Amino acid sequence: MNKQLCNVSGFVLTARDTGVAGKRLQLYTREAGLLTAVAVQGRSKRELTGFLVPGVYLQATLRASDFGRQLSQAEGRTVTDTLRWDYDRWRIYYFFTEWLVQLLPQEEADAAVYAAVAEYFRDLQTKDMRIRTLMMCWRLLALAGYDPQELAGNWSLPPGAAKTLHYFLTGEGSAPASFARQDLRQLLDLLLDFGAEHVDIGERRDVFGF
User: Fold this and answer.
1) Nearest to residue 113, comparing CAs of 37, 200, 35, 21?
2) What is the pLDDT of residues 159-192, one digit of tens each?
3) DSSP track, 132-146
4) Tens-place pLDDT, residues 20-72
5) CA–CA separation, 24 and 70 (whole Å)
6) Phi and psi for 72 in degrees, rounded to 5?
7) The pTM is what?
8) Buried b (16+ CB within 10 A) or exposed e, 163-199
9) Type and span of the H or E element at 13
């Protein structure tokens, strides 16, 4: 990727205020994987404000500066326009983004991760956000190079939870008509036990409500 000027396409993971009128963005892009970029006037330029929010598919030109990558031009479209965001959904969503940022390296393109992120945003509009986010976090674990099946084996999961984990990781077979609450809870507990040793994300056991 050109270090001075580059074109990227991908998803806005987070967008936080910075400086007088800026936005600091975390992006997951097709061309360079996980990126951090700053839109210096992101809160004051009308043509940018609608694009610099989480859940937007963004096509952008970035340029290098003394302060890191800066957003030069951008256009985008929301991919979660039918989702009603509330406090609980934001908490679940930011669990996902923090998990991704902690697990994956900066500026390392990965087509499989990009496809998984794109699928996640698409599914948020039609599927249970708690279950879909738990599934995505397990998939990210595998995509980051860990062996979830070995981890689960060490924990001796009961058959229901093991079957659910297999579906989470592979998508093979039909999704259960309903996931058993105790199976989801066990998979969340196992995920967080792993996170306590490898990912600086805290407990967050109350985020999902299983």
Assistant:
1) 35
2) 888 889 989 998 876 566 678 999 999 999 889 8
3) HHHHHHHHHHHHTT-
4) 767 889 999 999 999 999 887 655 555 555 678 888 999 999 988 777 888 88
5) 9
6) -95, -50
7) 0.87
8) ebbebbbeeeeeeeeebeeebbebbbebbbebbeeeb
9) strand 5-18
